[in-house]
C-alpha cells in the first residue's frame, strides 16, 4: 500500500482549490482522485457567466473559472488520477479506489480532504402521482444534455423548483428555442439567488409560481401535461386550484444533497440539517486528519465561497500533516456554535480559540425570508456583533466573522450563539 501525505477526493473546484492551497502551504505530496474523465467538476457544464466576481474580480463562465484552477494544479505538478472512483474511506484514513488503469488499489493518507460535491434530489423523493414516462429530467441532467451533449430534452417545458440550476435552465431552454411555461415553487419564497430570478425569469417573461407544486403528471410513454396546484400552509395541494399545463418535458430543481456516502461509511459525524459533516474551525471532521469543504460540507450559492472554504481546508490539512499530533489533541477546549432565532445552521459547528486564526468566517443560512433584522452573535451572555441586514433569504448564504481575541478574552464561555433579532 502506498502512502501519501494528502489525498483529495474530488477534482471539482473544491478539490482543486484544496489541493493547490495545501501544496502552496508546503504539503507537496498531494494526490487528487476524480471519478470523471476530466477535472473541473460540475463547472464544465455551467457555460453561463457570473463566476469569479469575488475570487478573480472578473466575470467568468464555469469552464473558464475551473480552468484557472486546473491550469494552476498542472503548473504545480499536482498528481491527479482521473476516471477513478473512491469506494471507501476508513477511520484510519485508508482510501480505497478503483480505476480501469490500476484496478482496485488503496492509499494510506496522512490527511484526507473530502470534496465530493453534491447531487440532485430525484423524482422518487417527491411522491408525485402519475406514471413514469420519458421526459422527466433533473435540471442538472438537462443542463449536461444541452451544454455538453448538444441534445434538447424537449420543446414545451415546465420546471418544478426554483433552485439556481432550475432558474438557469429556464433561461437556457428558452435561448435554445423551447417554451418554458412556468416555474413552480413549493415554498412561498424562491430557493435561488435574486439575480437569477431577475436575469433568468423576469427578463424572459417566465412566471414564477410561489406556493405551488405539481400534483399530477399525465402521460405513460412520454410526458403529455402536468397539473400545477396551489399549496396551503401545510404545503399540501389545495383542491380546486389545479391548472393543466401541456408539456413534453418536466425539469426538477428540488434541492441538492451532499454526497456523503463515503463520509458516513468512515464514521464521520453528519449534521441533520446540512447532511454534511460537522466540522470545527479548521474544517476538520469528527475524524482527526479528515477535512471537508465545498458542497459535500454544505450546499453553497456561489462557487467563489466554495474556493475560499476549500483553500482553508487545504491549508489546515497541510498543517495537520506537518504537526498532526498538536492539531488532533482532544483536550483542547471547543465551544459549540448554536444556530437559533431563524438561523438554520452554522459552518463550522464548533470552535477552539487556541487553534483558530486571528479571524474566522462563519457561514450560515436562514430558514425563511426576513426583512430588517439584525444578525447578532453572543459569546456566553455578551453580545459581540449586531449587524443589520435589510433582506435575508434561504437561497443566499450569510456570514459573520469571529475574532480570536474576543474568544480568548472570554475563556469561560459555554457557547457561541448566532441568531436573528428584530430591529
Structure description:
- The protein has 423 residues and is an alpha/beta fold.
- The chain is 22% helix and 33% strand.
- It contains 8 helices and 25 strands.
- The strands form 6 sheets. Strands 1, 2, 3, 4, 5, 6 and 17 form a 7-stranded mixed β-sheet that branches. Strands 8-15-9-10-11 form a 5-stranded parallel β-sheet.
- A hairpin with a 3-residue loop joins β5 (94-99) and β6 (103-114).
- α1 (13-24) crosses α7 (303-327), α3 crosses α4 and α4 runs parallel beside α5 (194-201).
- The termini are far apart.
- The mean pLDDT is 94.
* Secondary structure tally, helices: 8
Tell me the major beta sheet. 7 strands, mixed
Beta fraction of the residues? 25-35%
Estimated structural class: alpha/beta
Task: Write a concise synopsis of the structure shown.
The protein is of the alpha/beta class and 423 residues long.
Helix and strand arrangement:
Layout: E1 2-9, H1 13-24, E2 30-33, H2 62-76, E3 79-81, E4 85-89, E5 94-99, E6 103-114, E7 118-120, E8 136-138, H3 139-149, E9 156-160, H4 164-175, E10 179-185, H5 194-201, E11 208-210, E12 212-218, E13 225-230, E14 243-246, E15 249-252, E16 256-258, H6 261-266, E17 290-292, H7 303-327, E18 335-339, E19 343-347, E20 350-351, E21 359-366, E22 370-379, E23 382-392, E24 398-403, H8 404-408, E25 416-422
Parallel strand pairs: 1-2, 1-6, 2-3, 6-17, 8-15, 9-10, 9-15, 10-11, 18-25
Antiparallel strand pairs: 4-5, 5-6, 7-16, 12-13, 13-14, 18-20, 19-21, 21-24, 22-23, 22-25
